[in-house]
Amino acid sequence: MRRDYWREMNPMRETINSFFDDLLTRRLPAISGWGEWKPSIDLLDNGAEYVIMADLPGYTPENVKITVQENTIQLSGKVQEEKDTTEGDFQVKERSFGTFSRSIPLPTQIKPEEATAKFKNGVLEITLPKVDVPTGRILDIETG
Predict the structure, then answer these.
(1) Is 37 within 8 Å of 27 (Cβ atoms)?
(2) What is the end-to-end Cα distance of the chain in Å, rounded?
(3) Distance of CA 98 to the CA centre of its chain
(4) Are 113 and 75 in contact (CB under 8 A)?
């Protein structure tokens, strides 16, 4: 009977996959920002404005800071670990706590003074009106 080496390697592959899943999803001591959790975002261009949606589970508006500049948005926040009063040992502990910071560059300039933000069900939505770009005009050439 022929050996199936790929099947024999399956437990090792699962162990390696689990290691990298843990490495990329758990909060690790930051080495120049490596391993730091950053919220997932969507950046939508609606023509006259950009809309950023950021997933911030476990955060509240009080522990999130948004800094708006002409072409960059800076998101930062902090979540404290809950004081655990339950008895027993954790079998799995995957939730992360601490701080995050994320800078989001924008393709064009915006109007920071008109930006708005809403927070609902763990999703932060930031609306950023764009700066009006002059369209220019065609000049008539005078003769003579």
Answers:
(1) yes
(2) 98
(3) 15
(4) no
How far from the centroid of its chain's Cα atoms is residue 101's Cα? Answer: 9
| Confidence tier at 30 by pLDDT (50, 70, 90) | very low
User: With 0-12 CB in 10 A as exposed, 13-18 as middle and 19+ as buried, what is 85?
Assistant: exposed
Cα 140 from Cα 142, distance rounded (Å) = 6
Percent helix, strand and coil across the chain, each to the nearest 5: 20, 35, 45
DSSP string, 83-132: PP---S--S------EEEEEEEE-SS-B-GGG-EEEEETTEEEEEEEBPP
- C-alpha count within 13 angstroms, C-beta hemisphere, residue 140: 3
Contact status, residue 28 vs residue 35, Cβ threshold 8 Å = yes
DSSP state of 47: S
pTM: 0.65
